[in-house]
Structure formats: C-alpha cells, structure tokens
Amino acid sequence: MRLDLVPRARRSPLAATLSPVLAFLTAVLIGGAVVSCLGVSPGAAFAVYFVAPLSELWSLQEIALKAAPLALIATGLAFCYRANLWNIGAEGQFVVGGLAGGWVAVATHGSAGSTVWILPAMLVAGTLAGIAYAMIPALLRVRLDVSEILTSLMLVYVAELFLDYMARGPLRDPAGFNFPQSVAFDAAARLPYLMEGETLHAGVLVALAATGLATLVLGRSLFGFATRVVGASPRAARFAGFSEGRMTLAAFAISGGAAGLAGIVEVAGRIGQLQPTISPGYGFTAIIVAFLGRLSPLGILIAALVIAVTTIGGEAAQIDLRLPLDLTRAFQGLLLCLVLGADVLTRFRIQLVSGAAR
C-alpha cells in the first residue's frame, strides 16, 4: 500500500483562497499548544504576538519598516522562482547594495554646494551593485551550468565578510573612537520621514511602488508571460522563441536589483551609516515571504506584513512572557510548511494505492 498524489480535475477557487487562512489558523493552534507546554497561557501569547503589535502607532510603524525590505526582496525573488530559478543569495545582494550606496554617502560626506543628487545616486548605486552581484551565479548557470543555488548562497558570506572589512577598515570613521562604523550620513543622504517626529520613512513607499510595478509586469506584459512559460515548461518556451539563458539573466537581474535597492533603503533609512552588519537576515526571511505570498506581488505584501507582525510580537514575547525568540522563527517556518502543504492539497488529492496496482 502507498499514498499517491493525483492531480485534481479542477482546482476550486474557494479552496485556493481559504487554504492560506486555514494554514495560518493551524499554525496558530500548533503554536498555542507549544507555548502551553512551555507554561505560558496560549491566550496571553496570542495577545502579545498578534494583538499588541497592532494596537500602538510606534509598533505599526515598526511593522511597516520591517515589512518594506521583506516585500521588496521577495517581489524580486518571485521573478526567479516563477522562472524555476533558485536565487538563495538575496541576503548577499542586499548587503552589497547597502555597501555600494553607503559608500556614495561616505564619499560625499560634508559636500558643499547642491546635494539633491546624492540620495538618488545612492539608490542607483545600490540597485546596480545588487544586479552585478546577482549576475555572478546567473552567468555561471548560463555559461557553465553551475548550480545557482550553491553559488548564490556562498556569495552571501563573501558579501558579509567584505562589508565587515570595509566598516572596520577603509570606510571607518576616523573620529569614531575606533568603533567599527562609518560616519553618520548627512541629511541629504537619508530617506525623508513621512511623519514629523516619527520613524516611518520613504522606503515604505519604494516597496509599495515596486509591488505595484511587479504586478503590472507579471500580469500584463510579455516578459511576465515568458517568465511563467519558462518556469512551467522550458521546452515549450523554446518552441515559443523564449531564450532560457536570457530569461535567467533577466530574472536574476531583477531579483538582485530589488535586493540591492532594499539594502540601500535600509541603510539610508533606519541605520544611517555603514556597520559590520546591516541585515537581521532579511534576504533569507524574504524567501519564506515569497512562498507565503505564492509568488504574487499582492500576496507577498500581505505575507511580509504577517511576518513583520510575528517578528515584532516575538520580540515582545521574549521580554513580556520570557519565550525564546527562536520560537518565532520556528513559527514562521511552520507557517511556510503548512501553506505549501495546503497549496499542494488544493491541486492534488491523496489516493491510497494497493501493492497490486504498482
């Protein structure tokens, strides 16, 4: 006897819509059982994780600020994953983008005269750096058929170590009492705040604009159609005249550019200077966000907000309820597994097959 997955004749739109909701509720129930075993009231944990972050202005701003880079990176990754390409190195592209754009800010620190060009130059430099870094695994895949999974992942550590070296060495503030950080960016090199006296900055608008643009490209353009065809059937794509190699380069360029842009948005927004570490793992968490959002820009935006809420709630639970922060990461991973499993069950049905039918 064995269990087989048999394709359904027709996928129910209602089931496809409700499956992520049911997956989320299941994850919450499992999480409640876990925290109960840890001696904490599930109701209190639910309030801290999901209610408290939505109840105050500062926490709502923090949710938006954490969701923005996740949504921006995940939207770029959606192009790769829809084309059946596996860019696992968005974290490295994020770091390189932040470093390149931050270098522009450091190089122009204290400049006299007009400075309105500095912030746009930083954003462009960060985006181009992310594209260039993503081209390494893309070219290795196209030219030498090297697995993009391994190369993109290994390049993450190269980028992190290079940032660490630059922050401690060439870009270190000479008047910074030997702390491993650059000078604080000038006001002209910082993203403007959306509300006076608050922390919400224009990087949130950049993420929203990228989400809207990706929605148009994926849903209304020939390039979006080619991306789906290449991912679904490379042979059919070749018959249709779509080049798999060019699509690989284009998809990696988009995902790398989005990650690089997210990197400089984070540096020019929240951080305001270069440090040995500029990312809490956004590039890896964005992979979860991309699949939670089903590779749809709108779904990714919603998933980024959900992950941001659980992250803020997890930090509060660590303080208020003494729950480990790793529990939040475990919940996010469980949520991903349940959403993917629910998605499979909407496309296939489980069938028990006897040994004689083999």
UniProtKB/TrEMBL annotation:
Report the main location listed first in the record.
Answer: membrane
Q: What membrane topology does the UniProt entry give?
A: Multi-pass membrane protein
Which GO terms of the cellular component aspect does the record hold? plasma membrane
Subcellular location(s) per record? Cell membrane
> What molecular function terms (GO) are annotated for this protein?
transmembrane transporter activity
| Assigned keywords, A-Z | Cell membrane, Membrane, Transmembrane, Transmembrane helix
* Residues passing through the membrane, by range: 21-51, 63-81, 93-111, 117-136, 148-167, 200-226, 247-265
Range of residues in the leader sequence: none
Pfam families documented for this protein: BPD_transp_2
The protein here is known as Nucleoside ABC transporter membrane protein
